[in-house]
Amino acid sequence: MTKIGIPRTLSYYTFYPLWKTFLEEIGLEVILSPPTNKKTLDLGVQETVNDACVPIKLYHGHVMALKDKVDFLFIPRLVKADDKNTFCPKFLGLPDMVRFSREDLPPIIDPTFRMKSLRASLFGFLYNIGRQFSASKTSIIQGYLRARKAHKKYHYLLNRGLFPSEAMENLNSPLREIDFPGPGKEELTLAVIGYPYSIFDPYISGNLLKNLQKMGIGIITPENISSKDLKTFSRYLPQNFFWYYSNRAAWAALHLINKAKKIDGIIHVTAFGCGPDAMLNKLLELEAKHHDQLPFLSISIDEHSGEAGILTRLEAFIDMLEHKKKAEGSKTA
Ligand code: SF4
Fold this sequence. Notes:
There is one protein chain. This protein is an alpha/beta fold and 333 residues long. It has two domains: 3-169, no CATH class; 185-332, Rossmann fold. It is built from 14 helices and ten strands. It has helices spanning 12-25, 38-47, 54-66, 89-92, 94-99, 118-132, 137-159, 164-169, 196-199, 208-214, 227-232, 244-260, 275-290, 307-332, and strands at 3-6, 29-32, 72-74, 77-80, 108-109, 112-114, 189-193, 218-220, 265-271, 296-301. The radius of gyration is 20 Å and the shape is globular. It starts with a strand and ends with a helix. The model has no long low-confidence stretch (mean pLDDT 92). Residues 53, 55-56, 88, 90, 195, 243, 245, 271, 274-277 line the site of iron/sulfur cluster.
């Protein structure tokens, strides 16, 4: 069977169930790169230009992990996922960046993903991929329908509070059998804001989410906010960002600060070398300050950041939040 490789980073966190379902339906075997480890990152750093952001370096590491195991690499050129937002230029140039990084890579399948909406444009996008592999019209239509369903359910599960790995594991489970997180059981709840490929990759984020959970902290991420709520805050700023993931992160934070009012602080995970993050970080810091001095912590990840350093900063931040909560409790008592 023809093998096609998908790197476990960047758009993986948003689209993997869609890509996988469709590609399998047209008769391909999908090979996912293994979870990130030191070697993945080291290889990525070695194969990428110096000034690339750390997620792009990591992507190259995942490509390296796949290159000798697959017949093709699937690297769509992501341009737009709706009628307004464009993906960051690094996403637009990703297939070319990878293609010219080495000469010994398998052929790259790089269809252009420019959606007004999935409903309007997804079929054409998938149809072109199917035809490249000489798939029958029936399997393309079947694949399209199943892929859309998988994508919809995946995002529904994320909106109900699951993290991507949990949502992917539960994709085929009936809803009644899924253990969704309950509302506000924890003493402290934090908004963890950032791009999904930064916050959900345990290696690159220094196990941030797991360590917060171990401390008993409730977590809300942009992936847990519905498109409807995000859209409401797309009208809040006089000027939005140009980039898809930066806007999602900004709107999610604005929603949680202004409307949900159930967070005790914000952690912004920024990626070293990311231009949009420099502006986003300042915006979030100012918004937090203007809303009752909401505690704000910025954690920058790069190829040298280790779990111990991130954990020390987290512990100090949580200590401060606990003291603050106690002090507020004794004032109201
Ligand atoms: S948004 Fe930032 S972190 Fe993401 S790919 Fe673009 S430059 Fe890199």
